[in-house]
Structure formats: structure tokens, C-alpha cells
Amino acid sequence: MRGQGWETDCCSVTEVVPRNPIPLMVLVVALFGIAAALVVFEHDVVPEEKEAQRVLDAPSRLQLGMTVSYKAGPLLEEDYTMSDVDGVSSSRYRALGRSGTQITVQERARETLDAANVAYFFQRAVQDGIWELTSKPPRGDTSATYRISVYQLTDGQQGTRDIAFTDPHYWATTGGHQFHIKLDPHKPVPDLLQLSSTTLVEPRYQELVDGFRDFGPPSFKAKVAQARARLGLRT
Question: In sequence order, what are the residues at sequence separation of 6 or more whose Cβ sits closer than 8 angstroms to the Cβ of residue 63?
């Protein structure tokens, strides 16, 4: 033995000082957090971005039309059609005179940016109940028949609705009557004297017709008025 130290003739002893484990734990936690964030990103964020892009790239189409057929007078038929295809609006008016003369007014296609566009009109038509309204039997002034159609294709889903009616003013002011019969199981034959009725005043038919006639910029509506006047219809 040499002296009183750690070293001997046969071996040496090296003292190992324990390292602080906290930095290593912090690194492990950080790596785990990054891995978890990547998993969440791949699971939630990436699909949402892909879905949003898919919606933006998906075809979009709105089509609305109103055809008015007349039994008498200078006009035989007039037709209002409008569409919004992938954000581009266009409108057309066609009038057919009883003499066979036809006039078409085509509005220049434009991007759907301002209020005078088909997408805006479509939202108004939805508010007016175009998806809820149904065809009505001939009532009031039956000299003109109105047919309204709507088609929607958005986000891969589509729907259509076609309705027909006469005299929208009649439905907006007078309406029909819906009768209610109460059936009593103890009285197999209902008492018709106890019938109750509800007046079915429905202004939305008139609102839709007015919406079609009032749609478009002033230049378009002015040309429509000129076409109707040329065919002998007073506006």
C-alpha cells in the first residue's frame, strides 16, 4: 500500500458523481409533447384542412326559375331564369308573344360579390319558404299560372322543388279554407254542423313572384320592361 489514498498496486478507484436527471426528463417530456402534437395535427388539423379545401373545390350550383303562362292577352309565356355556378351569377328573361314573337334579355355573367346576385336572391327565396311551399289548386284569377322551380347543389348534396299555383294575390289576401273534422269513436258518422275551419292566407307566393320580377340591376330590369312593352304588355 502506498500512502492513504484511493490508489493501490492492483487497481484504481474512480469516484462517479451522479448526474442531475432533470434535464433528461425535460427532454423526454418535450419529445413526447412534440410527438403528441404531431398526432393531433395529423388526426384533426390535416383532415379539417383537406375537408375545407374539398368544399372550396367542390362544384356549387344554384338555379331558380319562374314561368308564367297566360290564357289570354298579348303574352303567351314569360320565363325568368337565374343561376349561380361556382360563384358566377347570370340571369335571363324570355318573353313569348301570342303572335309568335320572342324576345330574350340576357344579363352579363358576373362574379357573386354584391347584393344583386343569384346567391343573395336564393337566400331570400329560402327565407320566403321556397323549400316549404307546395303546389296549390287553381283559385282566384286563373288566367295566369305560375310555376317556380329551384335546384341546389352544394357540398355534394342536392335538392329540387317545383311548385305551381294561380293568382298569388289571392293566396296572400284571401286564401282557402282548411276544414277540421273531429271524429268521435262513439259517433261513427261525424257531425258536419260542428266543422271548424282555418283560413289559409299565404303571402309567400306573392313574395316569391315579386322577388323574381324585381331581381337584377336597374339596367337588366329596364330591358325587361322594354321587352314586355314591345310585346304589348302594359307594365
Answer: 81, 82, 83, 149, 150, 151, 152
